[in-house]
Amino acid sequence: MDPARVDSVEAAEIRAETELHSGLLPGADSSHPAELELPTLGKQPSLSGGSTVKSHGRRVLRPLALFKAASRTMKKAAKSTQQLVTPSSRAAGGKRQSVNPVARAAQEALRATRMHLTRKPQKKQAPAENRAVRLNAGEATDGFCGNDIKTAKYNLVTFLPIFLCEVFSRAAYLYFLLQACLSWWSTVSPFGGTGSTAALTFVVLVAGVKAIWEDSKRHKEDRRTNASTAHVLRNNGALEDIPWREVKVGQILRVNDDELFPADLLCLASALPDNVCFIKTTNLDGESNLKIRRPIDTTAVPDDSGEAQVLHTRATLQCEGPNADLHNFNGRFDPDDTAGGKEAKAIPATINEMLLRGCLLKNTGHILGLVVYTGKESRIQMNAAKTPLKVGSFDSFLNMQIGLIIILQICMVLFCGIASYIWRKNAGQLRPHLGLNAFVEGNYKNGLGYTLVLMITYWILYSYLVPISLFVTLEIVKFWQAFIFINFDKAIRDPVTGEAARARNSGLNEDLGRVEYVFSDKTGTLTSNEMQLREIGIKGIPYGTLDFKLEEHGDLAGPEGLLQFDERLYKAARGLLQEGAWAELLKSGGSAPALLSLPSSFPPLQMLEAAGLNTKELLEGQVEQHEEVGVGDAVLGHHVLDFWLCICLCHNLIVQNDPQTGQPLYQGPSPDEVALVEGARQLGFELVARGNQDLTLKFLGAEAKFQILNVMEFSSDRGRMSVIVRAPDGTIRLLVKGSDAKMLALLRPDTPKAHLEETNKNLHLFATQGLRTLLVGTRILSEEEFMTWDARYQQAAAALEQRDVAIAKAAADIESDLDLVGSTAIEDKLQEGVPAAIQSLLDAGIKVWVITGDKQETAINIAISCKLINHPDTLHICNAHSPESAHSRLRELLTAVRQRQNPTVFRSERAAAPTTAELVASAMPLPEGPSMPMPANARTAEMVIDGPTLTHVLGTPAEETLAELGAQCGAVVICRASPSQKAAIVRLMTQYELKVAEKGSRGLLRWIRRQARRQEGKMLAIGDGANDVAMIQAADVGIGIMGKEGRQAVNNSDYAIGQFRFLVRLLLVHGTLSVYRLARLIKYSFFKNIAFAFLLFFFQFYNGFSGQAMVDGISAAAYNVAFTSLPILLFSVLDRPVRHFGTLIQYPQTYNHGSSLTTEVFWKSGVLSAVIDAAIVFFVTYYAIVSGGRNSIADVYSMGKVAFIAMLGSVTLEVCLTARYWTWFFGIIVFISYWLVYPFELLFPVVEMWIKSPDPAQYGVARHIFSHAQFWLIIILTNSITFGHRFLERAIIWQYMPQDNMILKEMEISAGGLPGVSSWQTQKRLSHLGVTDESGRPQGSHIDPEAGYRANANFDHAAEYHKRGQAASKGGTSQNGQANGVPEVQLSNRGLASHESDVPFMPVV
Questions:
Q1: Is 521 a catalytic residue?
Q2: Where along the chain is composition biased (Polar residues) (predicted)?
């Protein structure tokens, strides 16, 4: 600092002290005493005369008199301690441990480097696998890879081989490839090879286009990254801008603030005078706080003078080869020997000097760095691991069903092959015109050979059982749902940052609609990670209110802010200000020991006398005396200053000036410290500036500078932070801030029990309000005590081995016998809409677990605030300190939960689901063991368990008890949990649910049940920080919150959203739509193909099992890829169960309701229905055709064409019957897809003739049958029968067994839009979730607000008309006791959802 500045500051302090003793405020003229502008409180008693004033009949001590009486001995002791440098520092004979956060970080980095140097030889040749980088005026070192990166999978040369290998590595595509190859074997193939090959080519081509489109985005991102600008320092000192791809090892780069490092650099110079730089490693490890790095210690380089000499330095960096270690680096910087006899010493290089690619430079100006690793050899690229492979539930389902279909195909092939041999041997011998006695190729004499060849024929013939178009259609639909519907959904776009949702894994879309458990982080996920000071406690008395939010009153500052925060604090501070004691008290660093040790700010007379205060002298001359003399606000004023001194001095913040407002801007690694110091500033207790060894404070207009002598850093083991400061008058004080668990053990042994009880009441009060708490304490140190301790501390700080342990021990020696000053309460605000989101998830039957590292009280009260815990009076808490107690407590809680449930629920769940109130009211014991899982409606228990208890449970037999107990609970809160415990909990519940599903089975049945369970309920984890990555990766679906703790969680997630409330729409809307659409896509795709295959199968009974196909190969291929693919594709991206998506959120009970795609439903809807329709089409066609006449269509090709077109009409009508949301575009495509077959059948034979490749099965057949009346009558008859029986089935279900979404659809039609809401709770929830505005009108819609109430009035009549006997929804009562806000709606319960299958209702345009 400038000496003139020091002199001016000291002169100002002396002048202020003189004015204070003269009765003036600092800066006031002697003839006009200064008056600090203070808000008035109305009529207040005068404080300007005498040593006491009379207030409300009590004698109140003058603050100045009290202060002088308490601090006489302090002034005497302080006269000899005015020096700025302590004798202990001189006695140490070395450099003191820095107290400036920046300098201290630089010292730590330098110390680590030197320790590294002492452990390794200074001269050691680098192994062959290591690298040597030459620092030679910025000249590049040859022989290393370039800096361009490539995340794209393909290029023009490699696309075809890589893509084809990827495609045909999948069993389904390999299956179709085999079919296409066999179809060219004319001896056995019933079709020509052209059709199947063309179909496979088309499917592979579509998949290739999709792969190219996705990879083009990677190429675009690679080009953008590689073209970013880097600044290279040339040998002439000039800076030249080059793209990142041209950066080479050995070059010197300049990186400016807010620029990413283009490669891994060795820091050579920094623009900061402290010789450090700040980096943000968010892209590397997800942490958003700044980290400090330092340039290489070039003090060993002769004549080095810093940045100006970088170009003149000649050296070689010997370092390890490229690796993925982000936390360690081993290297040696060897300067060249120079003239003049000076020997250059090797300088060790560690991770403290490395600037890794992807990190961001902040608050430094610029740095110069030597390029060490580039491109794919950089640390971030070598850590670019793929996220764990997650397969969607429908993909797994398809694999199992395809296996069963192939078994069916094998059975059909065996049957037909054996039947063909039997028919040839018996009936064939009676038909000599067939020539079966002539054994030629394909008609082998050997029975086994004949059968095997015919089996190959039938294998090809029945290959249509597996739809080849399904797989590419499935990929397209999932891609469209994810990257179009989710990514561009404005309803889940963050209104603050403008960031849209990101679907990073479209393969899991359907799992969004099947979530059973949600495991959520708290800080930054449920809360906004914006810390704000709410309340404080001083000497056991709470001050402030939760309703007063400082951030909403930015215009308040100083006394005005203090008055609004708490009038009592303002009055206490004003008293000291008006008496002139405030500035003097600030310069002394706070209260005298006698006042500091008082357990209360309002002590009785006996306590004052016991503290050594001469109250008789203070009260001399007064009229009357009382046994207990109130000291008014005087003692409180002293304690207020003590409290805020602890807050404003005990931290690691850096002070900067905000260029926009001019106010101080505080930055540091702890958001809690920023919140406390910023809150203090708004209340008038301002941290003005930080010097290298001092802090300048300005408290309510009085300014003072405190010298920082020592800083003991916070660590998780210590649980606290301490500083030792010297006040302007020379008093030395220890200030400590930490958790209550650690701080209470450091207090004076004689701390009154009443004081501790009141403090604990404050902590409990703050915790019940969901606030984060800290305690602050202080102690005055004598000069001798400090000097003795400081010598030990500096010795510990200079230790090379076990330094952290030595420092912690030295700190513990001084951190004792503290006077407890007070407590702080900080709010980590809930995100918008979190309570409404939690309620919606619970109403949807999803069990929500919150897993956090916060203390138990805070976690519980956050859970209460967000409506996760609704019965705190019956909350089950599991805290244990040993494995035995943990196991015992879990068994006890499990027994208690079982006793609250009714065993009749299990027997009657499918008959009538009881309400939650009925379940809670029952008290009969539940059956033992996990073999009988609790129904969703009965899970009303709520549990809390802490991390230490989990330590005793996980990995032991008791974890199964924990899993069973958790499964019985609707909400679980886990506190003090580590990242590994978060992931372990997810895996535990996954395995438990699978074990329950097994029901003791073994072998194949066990595997089938486990696979079925995997389809029903999914585990979802959601978090925002790097500590949530393990949990996100362990869950079936991982959701990353784009919050303030970096992008590590997002980068490892399957989906990313901006706020927790968006999870409701992601699951209830996008998840429901994905399940609805994809389930019907799969069932319909198999339906149409199995129907076609069985059409060919039935024909074998009438052609002697010869393997003859009644449909040509070209028409068969077109059936799959042209005529039937477009309608189901549009259905899968456009159809919806309800018209308005808000309806799905309004009624969350319908989420994951029923089984739309199980093995039973699949074989009923996709296989059995297909066989029935195939039988109708074939037998009606076969027996309706008249065999006689000149224009008969009874030949095999004509009949095959008729049956083919009839089947096409039947499957087209099926998709029309399945659709629930018709649009004109969908209708036109369906119409064209069907009627396209007629011109196709007429024109394609002409094309074949034109290319001179006629097909007798095609040419002239279509024109012949189209001119015959029988054809049109057969088409009408078959389509009427197939459509009629399916329509009748749907009508019966619609009339007597409606599904929930059918009822919701009818309500929408009746309401003319979004169904109305009569419950204010539901209206409030929908408003918070963005579905409606505060008046209940749909957002962005102009629907008649009265329409909803008309719908409610009409629904009772509709319910009676349709005889809907289901009386309770699956969700029972909501968390607020209402029937989910919709008591007028009667939805079918989960137990009746087994008939859900694919039964849609009539399409409505």
A1: yes
A2: 43-54, 79-89
